[in-house]
Amino acid sequence: SRLCVEPDRLYLKWSDAKKIFKHKKLLTVKQLSVSKGFLYNGQPSRAFNFIVKDNMDIILELRRHREKALFSPLANWINDQKQSGCATLLVCKTRAQADRLKSLLAPYGIHLRFIDGFPDVKPGENQVYVCAGEVSSGFVWPAESLAIITDYEIFGSKHRRRIKQMQKVRTELLAFEDLKKGDLVVHVEHGIGQYNGLVKLRLNGSSNDFLLIVYKDDDKLYLPVDRMSMVQKYLGVDGIEPVLDKMGGKSWDRIKTRVKKSAEKIAGELLKLYAERKVKHGHAFREVDTDFFDFEAGFPYEETSDQLDAIQDVLNDMKASVPMDRLVCGDVGYGKTEVALRASLMTVSDGKQVAVLVPTTVLAEQHFATFSDRFERYPVNVACLNRFRSMREQRKIIGDLKAGKIDIV
After folding, report:
1. What's phi and psi for 193, nearest 5 deg?
2. What is the distance between the alpha carbons of residues 387 and 397, in angstroms, rounded to a whole number?
3. Are the C-beta atoms of 292 and 349 separated by less than 8 Å?
4. For the stretch 42-54, what's the b/e string if a residue is b when 16 or more beta carbons lie within 10 angstroms of its beta carbon?
5. Is-contact 388 394, C-beta < 8 A?
6. Which fold is adopted by the domain 176-248?
7. What is the mean pLDDT of residues 291-315?
8. How confident is the model at residue 172 (pLDDT cuts 50, 70, 90)?
9. Residue 139 or 70, more confident
10. Which of 15, 263, 264, 285 is the 20 to 30 Å CA partner of 97?
């Protein structure tokens, strides 16, 4: 026996439902077929029949083909839905994943049509749609000629990284709370001084707030708060106490002149360096193919927007005919390794070898495990060269590298 609950406890009245719908961004209302002759408590009633089928068959089929042609069973499933008269909708968590899926299915003769959302689907027209959104799971609804499948049912579920938001370093004084008595500050015209609090002065019949900054020989500067943008908090080297500048002195001017000349010298050297790099000819890697999109789809995490930008910038650099000059920065767990993995695949696909340099032996082992796992389904030979390998193993790895037998080390 099962515990039964009164229908009124399970379902909302239409008037209550309408109140909830008002707060939703999107609502699609459609007439449903009603079965006749249904009795509830001995009284004639209306029943809404939702006869749907889950996607477990295609999910299991995709898992069985994970090591082979992943998208062959998916293409067959889509074609079966089209033959049965169903409109097919592929729902992806992000637009990037939708673009990727479109490229992966194109070689199978399946061309996806991008739509903004579910209301744009036209059941019964045998179309194949794709959109960015979230659906808990896909299904096939024969009565409505509709089939839906999600990206995580195709590729497997993705994890969302928990990334601690880093607080940006602020050098400008944005509020009085940034300062406390005794803090060293730098004025653009007078140099290093010591903040000595906020004072109120009466000038020309009006009272205003001023920052009191003390300089060498107890010289004082009263800076109106509306001009505090001229002051920055001093950020120096730990353990080194700077000397206060003298108001009207020449030391601060000499420092500014010296820094300006150094900056101009560095700028000149950089201009010369960049000009030399521009005229040098580098290897332009070819465009990515479906194997690359398949590799991207195997990333077990959701890419962040910054990560996608970094990946695209690196790939664009590699496709250019000038030497790359880019540094990808990020804290631990921000996805830098995935940028290197995709760049490595692009390199290997064009017949080149990849060397990944890391600062420690343990990190080399960790990256070796990551690279080996991601490239397991691809004809890519990955090796690790560090002190954990015997001299005989090291000589063999170096020999295989020279012979072109190793793709990534």
Report:
1. -140, 180
2. 12
3. yes
4. eeeeeeeeeeeee
5. no
6. Thrombin, subunit H (2.40.10)
7. 84
8. very low
9. 139
10. 285
